Amino acid sequence: MSRHVPSAPPEAPAAKALPAPEALEEIAPSEPQDLPSATAFALDRALRTAEANSDPRPLAFIAERAWLNEHGHPFGWGCRGLGLGHERLILVVAARQAQTLWALEETLKSGAVCAALGAVAAPSFVATRRLDFAARAGRAQGLVLRPHPPADLSAARLRWRIGAAPSAGHPLDPRAPGAARIRAELARSRTGHGGVFLLEHDPETHGFHMAAGLADHGLAPVQAPERDAA
Predict the structure, then answer these.
(1) I need a surface site. Which of 10, 81, 208, 230 has the fewest CB within 10 A?
(2) pTM score, two decimals?
(3) Across the beta sheet with 115-119, what order do the strands follow?
């Protein structure tokens, strides 16, 4: 007799490359504790887009005071680790969600920023449509950071779920953590395609890139365990 060992749940389909940036994207943590990873991904997404377009305009971070009190303000050294200096970051503090959405829309269509990241819990579909139009008008990227994976309608062309992943191995000390990694799942896109990406932080370029050894095919496929002979 032989018994079958259940295989691990399959990952979402592996993907070859991150999709091109869209005017409006939504980003949420996979779990509440993944919000810092989701924030880092959002900021990196905006910075890499600006870098590719040689766009020197600043980046705006817009959030309610209650959000900042609960989740914390952008940390200076953490932003620097992503290549975002304090001189390029504009922090806007709003009193309520309605004010956050208004400030996000006005900032995007002003043409004064390369991107604007708004921390908003539950924007309406109409509000996201306005943000999409505003981003296109201002030639900027709009990013909506939500505290939980959304299930409602949105005009965002890409929806991401971000989670922390085990760090890479240290090249000199196997007992020490290596480069930080995050797991980015494209949960929804207008094209209907999804994907999962394992991204690794590069301290030299300050950005997240496909993890070493996986750049051609996203996450490594899940291997089914071998059978045990009885």
Answers:
(1) 230
(2) 0.81
(3) 89-94, 59-64, 115-119, 141-145, 24-29, 158-165, 181-189, 195-201, 208-210
